[in-house]
Amino acid sequence: MRRLSAKKSLVDAWRDLEKKAVELQDMSVLAVDEEDRALEDELQLELKKLRTQFEELESQQLLVGEYDARNAMLALHAGAGGTESQDWADMLLRMYLRWAERRGFAAEVLDVSPAEEAGIKSAIVEITGDYTYGYLKGEHGVHRLVRLSPFDSDHARHTSFVLVEVLPEAEAAVDIAIAPDELQVDTFRSSGPGGQHMQKTSSAVRITHLPTGLVVVCQGERSQHQNKEAALKILYSRLLELDRKKKENERARIKGERILAGWGNQIRSYVLHPYKMVKDLRTDYEVHNPEAVLDGELDGFINAYLRSQIGK
Fold first, then answer.
1. Domain enclosing residue 131, as ranges
2. At 259, is the pLDDT very low, low, confident or very high (cuts 50, 70, 90)?
3. CA distances from residue 171 to 70, 277, 304 in whole angstroms, order as listed
4. Residues 251 and 270 in one domain
5. Beta-carbon neighbour count of residue 175 at 10 Å?
6. Helices 37-60 and 2-34: crossing angle, nearest 10°?
7. Are residues 163 and 271 located together in one domain of the fold?
8. What is the pLDDT of residue 182?
């Protein structure tokens, strides 16, 4: 039923676009016949909006992966560099939350590990909406920031790194079968901020999947039950991603491809000094307004990545 609903919404969107195109065509004929400059200017603006809608729908046709239609789990991990990288992780967290807000997607921070001085050590965000995993999967990799450090008294230039993981949300009853004895659940007191309540109760949860050794820790919520639910959701997504990577590696082995992974897989550079530019190293797509990108304007990078995957 969900797939049927998604297909219906997509068809309705294309039909609505077709209707708007016909209306604009009729109005353009009228504007030319009557030499109405004001109407022509208005039509140019509407045409620009129509082109943007068309490009968005066209990009959606590229989302044909097995899990592209699903919700996304976004995990951010600050790299080496202490406060610099932790602040950069916090900036990226805000960027993705702003992107979700711009697109009308729901975003919930399931867990966050605050840093001592500034920023965050890590965070996990669930982003809910049609094709959110398909749109965000190209964000997976290392993001590099170059700027004058606000934490350095000499205002020296620093380079910081953050690893972004993008996981498809798993459907527990369909994708993954876990026996109760495969899970080890431990509770402990949260070490993060949150006042007396978090210090007195063992609300934080650690779940270990014994067959794989995967460990998920969640302490972002006030109750143990909420943390356990969030941790299980993250664990299912990590297990699904593990299975997806195994299949991808097997396909690559058969085709003789080499898959890059880990910290060496730098995908994008954000430069704030000595010049301003954000450049994707896979597609060469770049913009010279990093402030807008960090405020959530990511669609240009997302669309460029999706188009670069055609035929791969």
1. 72-170+264-308
2. very low
3. 9, 39, 29
4. no
5. 17
6. 160
7. yes
8. 92
Contact (Cβ atoms closer than 8 angstroms) between residue 168 and residue 241: yes
Same domain, 212 and 86: no
Distance CA 239, CA 94 (A): 26
Within a domain: residue 67? no
CATH of the domain at 240: 3.30.160.20
Cβ atoms 222, 203 nearer than 8 A: yes
* CA–CA separation, 242 and 209 (whole Å): 12
Kindly state whether residue 136 falls inside one of the protein's structural domains: yes
Smallest CA-to-CA distance from 310 within 126, 190, 138 is with 138
Tell me whether residue 66 is in a domain. no
The number of folded domains in the chain is: 3
Place of tokens 């593990």: 242
Per the DSSP assignment, residues forming a β-bridge with 91 are none
The CATH number given to whatever domain includes residue 154 is: 3.30.70.1660
Domain contains 268? yes
The set of long-range contacts for 14-22, using a CB threshold of 8 Å and a minimum separation of 24, is: 14/57, 17/50, 17/53, 17/54, 17/57, 20/46, 20/50, 20/53, 21/50
At 96, list the tokens: 């993705």
Please state the pTM of the whole predicted model.
0.79
Q: What pLDDT digit, counting tens, does each position of 168-212 carry?
A: 998 766 677 888 899 999 988 776 544 433 444 678 899 999 999
Residue 277's Cβ-count burial label (10 Å; 0-12, 13-18, 19+) is middle
Name the token pair of 176: 């993954």
- Please report how the helices 299-308 and 37-60 are oriented relative to each other, as an axis angle in degrees rounded to 10: 50
